[in-house]
Design goal:
With 223 residues, the protein is mostly helical. It has a single domain, classed as Four Helix Bundle (Hemerythrin (Met), subunit A), CATH 1.20.120.520. The two termini are 27 Å apart.
């Protein structure tokens, strides 16, 4: 049952997206440490997955930086502005780690050397710590503010911008990532404007895309 009320914007889709980011970034270090020194075939599989994670996270944060934070800063009382600025500073810290990882990842995919793998694993572990701190703070402190300062149409527009600017060829996998551990009611709402046959088909295709990807990357359909 929905916990929202008519005068409060439903922001629960953000929690569903965050579930994906927490899960996959938590597992990233272990994936890297599990690749044998010199195993370039496995490094290619893991590297493509990690590249997808980094791009998805960067895209998510870019939309918030461009759409969400400026709108909130126009509307929140002065005493609440530091919460928005905290979100911005946490994004900067995460983006710095994304850049550091991104500089090392292509070389490791090419050579699969153990030294770089361990360095990348440590960086992903650090990224997960900072990311989890940020997502927790956003859910606990920022989203309740957004729910009262934004209309549902404004909130939904942010999601539309994110979908429009995301790579279309990765859309089905992204849906499967969100669906796997996400709130089923929220996931259904994400498809709410689609025609009925599409709402029936997309969850099945997304589940299949995620299962295929997870088996190749994690060795299990339920990582």
């Amino acid at each position: 049952m929905s916990t929202t009320t008519p005068d409060v914007t439903d922001t629960r889709v953000m929690n569903t997206l965050h579930t994906f980011f927490r899960r996959e970034h938590r597992l990233a270090g272990g994936l890297l440490r599990g690749v044998a020194d010199g195993d370039t075939a496995r490094a290619k599989v893991v590297g493509a997955h990690l590249d997808f994670l980094l791009r998805a996270l960067h895209h998510h944060h870019t939309i918030e930086d461009r759409v969400l934070w400026p709108l909130l800063l126009e509307r929140v009382p002065d005493e609440l502005a530091p919460i928005v600025h905290l979100m911005e500073s946490q994004h900067q810290r995460v983006d710095g780690l994304i850049g550091e990882i991104g500089a090392l990842l292509p070389g490791w995919v090419r050579d699969a050397d153990a030294v770089t793998a361990n360095r990348l694993a440590d960086l992903f572990d650090t990224l997960y710590v900072h990311l989890a701190e940020h997502l927790d703070a956003e859910e606990e402190r920022l989203l309740p503010i957004a729910a009262r300062c934004m209309t549902q149409a404004e909130w939904d527009h942010m999601g539309e911008v994110a979908r429009r600017e995301a790579p279309r060829e990765e859309g089905m996998l992204a849906l499967g990532m969100f669906q796997h551990d996400g709130d089923p009611e929220v996931f259904a709402q994400m498809l709410g404007d689609a025609p009925a046959p599409v709402r029936w088909l997309l969850p099945r295709l997304a589940r299949r895309a995620f299962r295929r990807h997870a088996l190749a990357v994690h060795g299990t359909a339920t990582p």
